[in-house]
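quick one, 356 residues, struct below
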Amino acid sequence: MVARSWRRTMSLGVDADAVRRVEPMAASALEDLRRRSRLSDVIDELRAPLLAAADASSYLVVVTDADGVVLWRSGAPRVKLHADRLGFVDGARWTESVVGTNAIGTALVEDAPVQLFSAEHYENAQVPWYCTAEPIHDPIDGTLLGVVDVSGPALTLHPAIRALVSAAARIAEASLWRRHSMRLDRLRRAAQPLLAGMQGPALVVDDHGWVAAQQGLSARDRIEVPHADRTLAVPGLGVCVPERLPEGWLIRPAADTSVVAVLDLTGTQACIEVRADASTWRVPLTPRHADMLALLSDAGPAGVTAADLSRRLHGDVDHQVTVRAEFSRLRRSAGALVAGAPYRIADGVLLSVRRG
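---
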């Protein structure tokens, strides 16, 4: 991973011997980024276990957004002074393209945990440092929200730092999920009178496709993200027309039909073509999502584990966190056409693959 990062950094023309300060953004712009960040909801819970550690007097805790901008920086005053000389301050962009190989920038590119020690950094000015970073994803849709990082003098690195940073990231993601679950509970309570007066199968989902309430069909947790001007194909319901609710969507069948889908890999843009009743629509896919769907199709009803997908997509089992995040993003597009635990094509979906 370090070698990959150094190659990227060299291709960007970053000077390892440069002595320069990274200019931070204006305070007003930074404050706006903080307010809009989903991490602002959990920043105290994210930093608490790191700042409470016995070694917190010798390092900094830094939280960035998905663009590598330092949103919050806390920690030892004397370490802050050293960081100030590097320009490692609130509002600075700490990416590979700006400061070369570093744990924050490399974690953003690799979408994986990164720990760098001393001369593994590309810029010589960062050689006296260690840094340990972990990406934080939105558990609702898998979006990369940012990175939590612990940085300090290289000779003060403690073996437990990596585990501590990882635990802090998981705490933040769990807290975001709890908040989402509370919103689903509110939507469920609000939808109960509506469902009680209806006949036939129906779902109530939030704006991300997560199911708050359902009746008349087998349990499921998520469908494709609803849009007011687009029909949905939901296994067990067939073709559905989303109906807007105050804080979500009512999903009920427009016709009783099965769902047939074709993964089309023949063109320059991979896509999935969904056919249900008289309706047909196409959803564009990224190359990674197309690869995942093809693997799920090949696996059949038994499905695959995160380790299986990591091995088949990345050549090892070390990218399971990345796989889980990518699968969550896939479900924003494919919705109920795929299912988890294990990862597989959902029951009631007939998926074929069209290859060139």
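The domain at 2-178 is CATH 3.30.450.40 (Beta-Lactamase).
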